Amino acid sequence: MDALLIALLGCLLGEIGGKSQLLVLALAARFDRNGAVIAGIVVAAAANAAISAAAGAYIGPMLGSDARLLFLALSLLFLGAGLLWPVKAPDPLGGWKIGAFLTAALGLFILGFGDGPQFLILGLATRTADPALAAIGGAIGIIAASVPVVLLRDRLLTALPIRAIRLCGGGVLLLAGAIIALSALALL
């Protein structure tokens, strides 16, 4: 159950004010088809989370306990550093003529590769015995961060203190990652 909650909260935090939310905002404004864009978000989040969890389940048994813990620490550090990094608006995919659902699903799926939330799911799936719960929690977190942007458009992003959330969240994740890394290296 820890994997589900940590993945949910970490992925939700990792998506706040990120490239995915900006792409979702652009797609929602462009297509004005909320249902299709939300369906694309769900498919992309589920696919990325499943791939990450499957990779973690494959890698986990190959590593020792301390190595799995260090891998989780690195994923937290990566996500925390990503929150502190300035976000550039992604390509709004204006040239894609494949409809709202496919544009959202494929665009967000591609954008999610190598992103902090996907790496967190991978780290949790590697560390815990519950890769499915890590995938479910991560997908729910990503969906929970993206769907309100579709429904509320830019009102949500202007109402929230995005920069403060990203700075505080990044600091907390960096601290947690550092503590876990020191513990994995038997320095704490």
UniProtKB/TrEMBL annotation:
State the InterPro entries in the record.
GDT1-like
Pfam families this protein is in? GDT1 (PF01169)
Q: Which UniProt keywords apply?
A: Membrane, Transmembrane, Transmembrane helix
Show the GO MF annotations. metal ion transmembrane transporter activity
Location (main, coarse): membrane
Which residue spans traverse the membrane? Answer: 36-57, 69-87, 93-111, 132-152, 164-187
Q: Quote the subcellular location field of this record.
A: Membrane
Q: Tell me yes or no: is Membrane among this UniProt entry's keywords.
A: yes
Question: How is this protein positioned relative to the membrane?
Answer: Multi-pass membrane protein
Q: Which GO terms describe its cellular component?
A: membrane
**Similarity-based family:** Belongs to the GDT1 family.
Official protein name in the record: GDT1 family protein
Q: Which organism is it from?
A: Sphingobium wenxiniae (strain DSM 21828 / CGMCC 1.7748 / JZ-1)
